[in-house]
Write a structure and sequence with these properties.
Layout: H1 24-34, E1 42-43, H2 45-52, H3 56-68, E2 72-74, E3 80-82, H4 84-93, H5 97-113, E4 117-124, E5 127-135, E6 149-151, H6 156-164, H7 167-181, H8 185-202, E7 205-208, E8 216-223, E9 230-237, H9 242-262
Antiparallel strand pairs: 1-3, 2-3, 4-5, 4-9, 5-6, 7-8, 8-9
Helix pairs in contact: 1-3, 2-3, 5-9, 6-8
């Protein structure tokens, strides 16, 4: 979900699928579940309608179905929150405990060195979903948690994903990214082009004060060997100099990514 500004809901972009195998009602139901995040724990049908772009009666019928299945739970005032059904699905989708133990120490080491935060993310439509996170000792401008979503076009993690996908996939996504970026698109398009050059030349992506004047970030993709699924590792924070970002933090993050890709305890 795109990051909120002042609490105002923003409609999600969508990739169109016209195949006969595509079930639109299922897709709409999943869109409703994606409306909920760490900062938006309860929503009404009007808010869900605005976030998804669905007519309010349609959104409400889908919500009632999700309530019946235990994926949503009604609260006071006719609002809804995520139910235990979704939590159960989410916990089974996270990387294995063995993987968590494998990367925890290395992620924390890089976070302390930066100082900043190190996140393992997975793309979710036009956002990056945080699966694992290590926090350094330095002060952070943004303190996201596991389960938070980072806008793909406004995060180092997102740039790392956009840097390594095939040109055809990027072209397919571009109209939706442009719509989400609005007036910022010329700047964001330039960042994406630079990220693709960085990844080609360095093996990682630099976002040096691109999204916030106090934040320097570096990120790199992680491709699961067993499934081909794409993750990203990113480090963001008030890193002292651009040189440290390029010469010290970036290479360490890239080495961790390579270790994750070749380890026998694969990402799934």
């Amino acid at each position: 979900m795109p990051a909120d500004k002042g609490g105002e809901p923003q409609k999600r972009g969508k990739l169109r699928d016209d195949s006969r195998q595509f079930v639109s009602s299922l897709a709409r139901g999943l869109e409703i579940l994606r409306c909920f995040n760490a900062s938006r724990t309860e929503l009404g049908s009007k808010e869900i309608s605005e976030l998804t772009g669905l007519p309010q009666p349609t959104a409400w019928r889908l919500c009632n179905t999700l309530v019946s299945l235990g994926y949503l739970v009604p609260t006071s005032g006719g609002r809804l929150r995520i139910g235990f059904g979704v939590l159960g699905l989410g916990s089974s989708a996270l990387p294995s405990t063995d993987l968590s133990e494998l990367v925890k120490q290395e992620m924390q080491s890089i976070a302390d060195l930066a100082p900043g935060s190190v996140s393992l993310c997975v793309p979710d439509q036009f956002d990056m979903l945080i699966l694992r996170r290590a926090m350094g000792t330095g002060a952070l401008v943004f303190n996201h948690s596991v389960g938070s979503r980072l806008p793909m076009i406004r995060s180092g993690a997102g740039l790392a994903y956009l840097a390594m996908i095939e040109e055809e996939r990027l072209e397919l996504m571009t109209p939706h990214l442009r719509s989400l970026a609005g007036d910022e698109w010329p700047t964001r398009e330039k960042s994406i082009k630079q990220a693709r050059l960085d990844y080609q030349n360095l093996g990682f992506v630099l976002a040096d004060q691109v999204f916030h004047p106090a934040i320097r970030a570096v990120a790199t993709p992680v491709i699961a060997k067993s499934s081909g699924r794409i993750f990203t590792l990113s480090c963001a924070g008030p890193v002292a100099t651009s040189e440290r970002l390029r010469n010290e933090i970036g290479p360490k993050l890239t080495l961790l990514a390579k270790n994750l890709q070749t380890t026998t305890m694969m990402l799934t």
